[in-house]
Amino acid sequence: MSLHCTLGIDIGTSSSKGVLVTPDGRVLRSASVTHSVSRPAPGHVEMDGAVWWSELVDLCRELLTGADVELLAVGVSGMGPCVLLADEHDEPVRPAILYGVDTRATAQAERMTVELGEDAITRVGGSMLTSQAGGPKIVWVHDEEPEAYARARRLFMPASWLARKLTGAYVLDHQSASQMSPLYDIDSEGWHDAWWDRYAPGLEAPRLMWAGEIAGTVTPEASAPTGIPAGVPVIAGTIDAWTEAVSVGAHGEGDLMLMYGTTMFLVATGRTTLRTPSMWTTVGAFPGTRNLAGGLATSGALTAWLKDLTSADFPQLLAEAAASPPGAHGLVVLPYFAGERTPILDPDARGVIAGLTLTHTRGDLFRAALEATALAVRHNVETMRAAGADIRRIVAVGGGTQGWLWLQIVSDVTGLVQEVPATTIGASYGAAFLAASAVAAPGDEPDIVRWNPVTTRITPDRDLAATYDTLFDRFLHLYEATVPVVHELATHQRQE
After folding, report:
1. What domains can be seen in the chain, in order of their start residue?
2. How far is CA 67 from CA 4, 138, 323, in A?
């Protein structure tokens, strides 16, 4: 007898992942495939959208071949907000422009802010126009690549692209849409038609749905390459950070999710729309919820850079970093190696390593890099709380949760207890849960607490509070002190 399962697929920045999950939350099979993004110019980060579909096909073949399962539904998820523009035949007109790590549309964001006014933009969309906003990236294509834009008819993100390819439905979930600032009205939960027509001329606005709603069913054309039976329901899906929050049950009022990945993401959930210039205000993955979100441009990307630079493996680096004391013998690192998103909103920020001497070791440098990401998380958390966010519960998720040292440093620096659930696969698991919820009979919906219970609690070392308070002050002051020189260097880099 075939085992009932749901399939979850997530397209991430450095890899795509898939899971087959039973109705009680057990991971039956998992698979992943790595990829890389393209950086064709300083501040440009993009990816061929065709890869998203080809990787889904590869993952489905690996997961479904030889598996005696009956698929109940498919969940999709992906990095975002991304801007993939496609023509009337759903052929991409250019590579997808990625989320806030891509800073190319700074001039467009500034122009739109002048044209519309800061008050109007935040009133409608909830957030200022930053590198995270999708609207200016559409305008960038219109301005800089008019021939490509002239062929564009539709807007996709990874999850909505997969839903389109699987079902033929042209949809986008509300959460993703709310990050297409200023094109979405956060209070009315719909497209702002006047601004859509002005800044996305010629593009058909996708139909809006909630992340866990069924977008359609798998077509025979999509069934053939994937092996998913025709007729299986597919949800609309959403951006990976929000799906990760779902995967660990961190989407209730007072919850904060920390996503440890190539970048770091934070999502605080509540019922009230909070607006602050330095964070992102969005609707939640579920009706009636609102989020205050933030993100680091580098976290795992920074540690990977150091690993490659030093030709050491992660276990060795972590062991050496553990032997270095808090403060890394007087080092302070600014982790802005790809600019920075929240709360400084500075695409021209750059990495800084301060305090180096000839006595410092590789372990000191690696510890200082881990502390840098923790200090940046603290900066975001304090900014969220100042804006009114009620953060009562912290849940950690993502690949970085596998190493205890990084988790402990974040708790020590922030003073926050972190809960780590049994399964930290992340967004693909959350997508499978949303799919299971979408097809469950009323009263028989799955419970994420039972699917994925908390198994570890990371408690901060209160004896280190004073040390990290001092380090945090130095961290903030270092950024302010180096801004003039760093911005000059960023300008020079763009001209090379």
Report:
1. 3-241 (3.30.420.40), 252-423+461-496 (3.30.420.40)
2. 11, 42, 45
Q: How are the residues of the chain apportioned to helix, strand and coil, as percentages rounded to the nearest 5?
A: 40, 25, 35
Question: Which pair of tokens denotes residue 433?
Answer: 């849960």
pLDDT tens digits along 102-120? 999 999 999 999 999 999 9
Distance of CA 148 to the CA centre of its chain: 27
Which residue from 217, 485, 164 is spatially nearest to 351, judged by alpha carbons? 485
Question: Among positive and negative, which fits the CA dihedral 395, 399, 400, 401?
Answer: positive
Closest CA to 284 of 171, 175, 126: 175
Residue 267, strand partner residues: 257, 293
Q: What angle do CA 164, 441, 172 make, to 5 degrees?
A: 20
CB 235 within 8 A of CB 436: no
What is d(CA 25, CA 5) in angstroms, rounded to the nearest whole number?
9
Q: Is residue 1 scored above 80 in pLDDT?
A: no
Mean pLDDT of 7-33: 96
Measured between alpha carbons, how far is 206 from 211 in angstroms, rounded to an integer? 14
Dump the DSSP string for 402-414. Answer: G-HHHHHHHHHHH
Sequence-ordered list of residues with C-beta below 8 angstroms from that of 249, at least 6 positions apart, any chain: 255, 395, 421, 448, 449, 452
Q: If pLDDT is split at 50, 70 and 90, which confidence band does 155 have?
A: very high
51 C-beta neighbours (distance < 10 Å), count: 18
- Cβ distance 31 to 18 under 8 Å? yes
What CA–CA distance (Å, rounded) separates 437 from 6? Answer: 10
**Of the candidates 62, 60, 138, the residue with the CA atom closest to the CA atom of residue 97:** 138
This prediction has a pTM of: 0.87
The secondary structure of residue 107, as a DSSP letter, is H
The rounded radius of gyration (Å) of the Cα atoms in the chain is 22
Residue whose structure tokens are 């000059």: 488
Beta strands in 69-219 (DSSP E): 69-78, 84-86, 96-97, 154-156, 171-173, 184-185, 190-191, 207-209, 214-217
CA distance linking residue 51 with residue 16, whole number of Å: 10
For residues 434 and 237, give the distance between their C-alpha atoms in angstroms, rounded to a whole number: 8
What's phi and psi for 407, nearest 5 deg?
A: -60, -45
What is the C-alpha separation between 101 and 265, in angstroms, rounded? 12
Pull the structure tokens for residue 203: 């593009």
CA distance 202 to 185: 20
